[in-house]
Write a structure and sequence with these properties.
By secondary structure, this protein is an alpha/beta fold. Helix content is about 50%, strand content about 10%.
Length: about 475
């Protein structure tokens, strides 16, 4: 193991640079208390709202029920209308003239990993397929100091010269954004992209992003590539639903948000940044477990724009509830953190920023998380009605709302799959309602962790692609 001092050139060890350094951006003091899930004023408002609901529930349960009912109604309808609006937003091609090799800027790939020894060789093969001049390409594989298995796996590989392995010094919080911040201090590129362990980026993705940045004005700070879930290699409910969900988000919703000029929560990978604006906002928030969602809004607060590109990154889906549940809980918790932090930092005083938070985060998350409770209450109501007199008391407006919500989501997922070259299947679309109901497994965990373990990182386990088929 070679130990490097700050500012010294990395030393190659078995064709890789494996080095350590003192803590840098990753251990910086949290900016403006962003590591706090709820500020003092927010806690006061939350407590007051809970007390008011309790008093109203005791004094007038009917009014409380009506308030909850109409909140559900507005949230579901809002989520459906956003999806419909996104579907009817023309997808305007913003292709840029490809740059010749000599005009391409230096590019740094940051790939934070933890306990990913099994996919190390596959990841290196995917990175090595990228079509970009090697003299302008730097890939930093970022590992934790105690992850001995993954460090050994990379030492055993014959790494291409552009790939270096960075060992992050021990510190807190133990999160992906902290590792990314450490790597950012070593990044040499004018452009920076984040990739994950399971990623298989399109070989021409870097060239497309570089051309777009060169063609647009300096306000464009980040481009999100579409993440596409590979076709599951065996029939399974969760992977197919995950594929539909990603298709709707990355092929329909995010391009529409960009067209509307709204900042949006980035995906956890394949976001391409200009390095200067990224450093100007202080890198990623090491205390947010969905740093991808947070960084998009912070760039927007600093006056920068976000966009999307077309060349995708292929990813694998979780195959079981044991994988899916903790990952989903982390996403929900992180989105709650992002909402509370940016509201505390003044989003409510900027109408456009507040609209973006509501449209791209608050309504989608609320509608997805409230779906299961609403379905359960409706089912209980139907059972009680049948036991009483055999007639249903569910209003026509409720049935219409459920149909519109499901229909908009199914159509959005189907359109996304078609845009990505896939073929939607009726059975998978019908399964959406059941998939949303599964969120009731993750939501309580997310809310509990939001208050009592806000920076805990639920690790998603990845496996090699043996036997998997790409879409």
């Amino acid at each position: 193991m070679a130990r490097e001092q700050r500012g010294a050139a990395p030393e190659n060890v078995a064709a890789a640079a494996i080095f350590e350094d003192e803590p840098r951006l990753s251990d910086a003091e949290p900016r403006r208390g962003q590591h706090v899930s709820l500020g003092a004023r927010q806690r006061l408002v939350a407590c007051a709202a809970a007390l008011l609901a309790l008093i109203l529930g005791v004094l007038d349960p009917q009014d409380l029920f009506a308030g909850v009912y109409w909140s559900f109604f507005v949230v579901f309808l809002g989520g459906a209308l956003i999806r419909l609006a996104a579907m009817f937003t023309p997808r305007i091609a913003k292709g840029a003239t490809p740059l010749p090799d000599e005009a391409l800027p230096p590019y740094t790939l940051i790939v934070p990993l933890y306990r990913e020894a099994e996919v190390a060789a596959e990841l290196v093969a995917h990175l090595d397929r990228l079509d970009y001049p090697r003299d302008r390409l730097q890939a930093l594989i970022v590992l934790e100091a105690d992850d001995l298995a993954t460090r050994s796996a990379f030492r055993a590989l014959d790494l291409p010269a552009f790939i270096q392995v960075l060992v992050v010094p021990p510190g807190v919080p133990r999160t992906k954004p902290r590792a990314c911040n450490e790597a950012l201090t070593w990044a040499k590129g004018d452009l920076v992209v984040i990739y994950d362990a399971e990623d298989a980026p399109d070989p021409l993705q870097l060239r497309e992003a570089a051309a777009r940045f060169a063609a647009e004005d300096s306000s464009l700070a980040c481009l999100q590539a579409p993440l596409r879930i590979e076709t599951p290699h065996h029939p399974a409910f969760i992977p197919h639903q995950f594929q539909l969900e990603y298709a709707a988000l990355f092929e329909v919703l995010l391009p529409a948000y960009a067209q509307w000029g709204l900042p949006f929560p980035l995906g956890g990978t394949s976001n391409h940044f200009k390095a200067a604006p990224l450093r100007a906002v202080g890198g990623w928030d090491a205390y947010n477990v969905t740093e991808d969602a947070d960084i998009g809004f912070r760039l927007a607060r600093a006056g920068y724009r976000l966009g999307t590109i077309d060349r995708p990154t292929l990813e694998t889906a979780p195959t079981s509830l044991a994988q899916w549940g903790p990952q989903r809980a982390r996403w929900i918790k992180g989105h709650l953190q992002t909402l509370t932090v940016h509201t505390r930092l003044g989003a409510q005083r900027a109408p456009r920023a507040l609209l973006a938070l509501i449209v791209t985060l608050a309504l989608p998350i609320a509608s997805s998380n409230l779906h299961a409770p609403a379905m359960i209450l409706a089912a209980i109501g139907l059972i009680l009605d049948q036991m009483a007199d055999g007639r249903s008391s569910i209003a026509i407006s409720d049935l219409v709302l459920y149909a519109v919500g499901w229909g908009a989501s199914a159509a959005c997922g189907a359109l996304g799959l078609r845009r990505s070259g896939g073929a939607p299947r009726a059975l998978h679309l019908l399964g959406l309602a059941g998939y949303w109901t599964l969120w009731i497994i993750a939501s309580p965990r997310a809310v509990w962790q939001f208050f009592f373990a806000p920076h805990h990182w639920d690790k998603t386990v990845h496996a090699p692609r043996t036997g998997r088929r790409a879409p």
